[in-house]
Amino acid sequence: MTGMQGSIGLADGPGPVGQVGPVASVEDLRVTFRRGGRNVHALRGVTLHIAPGEIVGLVGESGSGKSVLGLSLLGLHPKASTKIEGTVMVCGQELTSGSAEEWRLVRRRYLGAVFQDPMTSLNPTMRIGRQVAEVAGNTDEAVRLLNAVGIADASARLSSFPHELSGGLRQRVMLAMAIAGTPRLVIADEPTTALDVTVQAQILRLLRRLRDDLGMAMLFVTHDLGVASQVADRIAVLYGGRLMEVGESADILERAVHPYSNGLLRSRLTLLSGRDRPVVSLAGEPPDPTNPPEGCPFCARCAFVEDLCRQSIPEPVEIRRHHQVACARAGSLTEITDEALAPWPQRADPTGLAVLVHAVTKTFSVGRGRRRRPLHSLRGVDLEIAPGEVVALVGESGSGKSTLLRAIAGLLRVDSGSVEFGVPGDPQMVFQDAGASLTPWLAVGALIAERFGSSGLSRAERGQRVEHALASVGLPPEVRSAKPRQLSGGQRQRVALARAIAVVPPLLLCDEPTSALDVSLAATILNLIGQLRRELSMAVLFVTHDLAVARIVADRVAVMYLGRIVEIGPVDSVVGDPKHPYTAALLASVPDPGVELKAVMGEPASPLDIPIGCGFASRCASADELCHRSDPQLDALSESSDGPIRSIRRVACFHPVRSDEALGGGGG
Amino acid sequence: MSPLAFAARRVSAAIVIVLILVAAMFTLQHLSRTDPAHAYLGAGASTTAVAAERVKLGLNQPVVTQFFHYVANLAQGNLGVSYRTRNPVATDIGEYLPATVELAFYALVMALAAGTLLGVASAGKWRGARVLKFVMVSGASAPLFLLALLGILVFYGHLGILPATGRTSSVNPPTGPTGFLTIDAVLAGRFGVLLNALRHLVMPALSLAIGPAVSIGRVLRGSLMTVLREDYVRTARAKGLRERRVLLSHALRNSVGPALSMTGLQFGLLLAGDVVVEQVFAWPGIGYYAAQSIPVGDFPAIGGVTLVLGVGYVAINALVDIFQRIADPRIKL
Q1: Is the Cβ of B242 closer than 8 Å to some Cβ of chain A?
Q2: Architecture of domain B89-327 in CATH?
Q3: pLDDT at B59
Q4: Does A174 reach chain B within 8 Å, measured CB to CB?
Q5: How far apart, in whole angstroms, are the C-alpha atoms of residue A513 and residue A325?
Q6: Domains in chain A, ordered, with CATH?
Q7: How confident is the model over A252-263, as pLDDT tens digits?
Q8: Residue A304 confidence (pLDDT)
Q9: Looking at this predicted complex, what is its ipTM?
Q10: Contact A100 B232 (CB under 8 A)
């Protein structure tokens, strides 16, 4: 059985590996891909050492080369189209020009890997027991590993297929395979990005615990500094294929020197970001990897740029112990203070009615034949939004938030209840994946002009209104003749917004429009939505899984769980003083630097299997017999019931969190 | 869906297809203006004898009446009597069918084997894949009869290593119990007969297989190439599995779906080719039987063969669905 090699471990190592040397290192690593007849310079001279037992958080935006570095350490680049220069060492072996077989043995013995989406990363047609046993060597060892990653009834799960497991369980299976044979280094590439926030918190804790138990090193690739801060001992910031700054986590988070790491930190949204004004964003976009700049990759977006920066690439310099910065002006940087952005103008409280959702239910039917089961997606939702008001809808997968959005958009027929609009016109939608929601063969101008329909506008008038719509989302008029694929991700999301507001809709429905974007881009889109809704007095329903984002965009927030709104109220009061244990658990799962994660147990309940009592009871620390027996309704809290209707807080809970319990009341 | 519901659905599909086939046959019969009674009695029959025979065979009735009459008989398992052999068609088919099933089976096995080899070899960039592809594609682009004749010329006429016609040249071959010569020979313990039968099978089966093999191979290659870019293949490689294992135990199973669909489609073409191939190799199957019945307008015989082939096609496609379900547990039948 080939699987036996995995468990042999250290004894047959090819070379002597001392305790002091790094478990893996790259020296001046340059990786270039040949793609579509052009050279993509993904990594342009990266030097990084990973010590045994250490977790290095590799942070960067999309296109920074962070995943490429991870794959370089796994030797998984396609040989034919990749040029690798520099040095790659893993466990004392020089592998830069290693053969496929050498790399395979190194992966087998010393390396483990966890990837972003556990659904696509597991073989859909192979039982998980076999997938784990393939690396573990035998079934007993597979069961032991599955237990080690926190899968309770592991031996009963062996015969499951990946699609029969929840997202969190799937990622635990991936982890079990990664730690099989006790690797020296695990490459984890965005291992929590595809997971719900409460599950993310559990997996992050598990990763740390596994490292502590097994002593393996880890390269933790992520776009989110907050996530990195939760697990990493050191953080390395990558930009344009170069390392900008490397240092111990606390040092980077508190005393970042490089203007880029600083910018990343400042544009990161937290539960404390000011919401009375636009959020700080890094202007500009990352350099084109097919045509990288001669000087510092960041110089085009840097506030401290000088001629020297444009002429040569700065090398990393040690400015403190274990803290390196690649910036020509590292010694002479002043404290960065953002120009205080002007606060949003004050407005009168929104009145009137843009949309009224009343007692909406929707049940889908899944499976066929005797396996046919009802999936209760919406179980009685009430919601009203005033013109000019933004309501954020927060919830995890399966909560029904996207179904509610589609029901309001008229894209699906509800089973009972009603959706009424107080203002004429059709609601418009903006989706997460702007690229996929724009017809690829139509020019931007045509896509926007579609909104005018047969309104009898002349050609010139249409053109003018298209340009006006583009201008209001901050795009130049030339964009009208471009095709969606010629635009960047941020530009495409702007085009989607321009199309939605070309004729001002009574209600703008946003389905996670920023979650696929890098932090700095997300910030600009959030600012744009904030500006548009104020200028146009447009009601917005904004679906997000991220409470920090909800807090920034919304006036009110509605928290959904299992097809119901479990808590709703003004955003400051809900975030600052959550009443429902689930809201508290969500807040406690937000990975912010310096805040210890309190992971709630279990995973979001399945809409296929609705409990009799409160949907959250099985995960709730304060649930008692009453919660399991009867279903709490969404009632106004007594202390807030006198105020104006929009300041009323409602919560569906028999035992609301007391204000003094504050954050983390739902943690177990 | 439960197995029973699945079976019920496929059987009703088969019934609908049979009805459509019968209707199509009656239309053709009506349009062809061949007089089966004339064919039945021979060229020298008198006009009155022919007219009497038409009444006896029910040919003087309206086509629609004849159609319902035929269907009613069919429901009782009665396919009528062949005008040419004067045997019940069911008896004739019972005699000729095993030879065809045996040939089609070996052809299908060869098509699947060669198709898989072609697909895996070209997707895995194995050495020799290009040569294999060249040979197979040129084979598949030649018309079937030409390929069969060429095979006879080379392997029988020139090299003399394979027989040209028939199922067997053994003396007194076993005739039961299954009717499949290769199986009966094994059951009877006569391995000489088995070898002889296999030698007779090679050329006709290969001629039938090569077209479907290329189609299956190309579809398999396409889906393999897609699957090899999937995340779970990267996971398998990250585990440090051997490339062969990555390909065969992770990628291949996830790629067979489209290839199986193609196999179902190609089986129809294989049955059509069977009529030609049996003719060229004088293979005593129902294709051969049909080819002899067509010129004389022996409609009961032609009808029987058509129905058998139609039902065979439905059966194979039901099998394809079942195999797809086995290959991918996410598929519900």
Answers
A1: yes
A2: Orthogonal Bundle (1.10)
A3: 76
A4: yes
A5: 34
A6: 2-10+26-232 (3.40.50.300), 259-332 (no CATH), 355-366+373-427+505-661 (3.40.50.300), 439-504 (no CATH)
A7: 998 888 999 988
A8: 86
A9: 0.82
A10: no
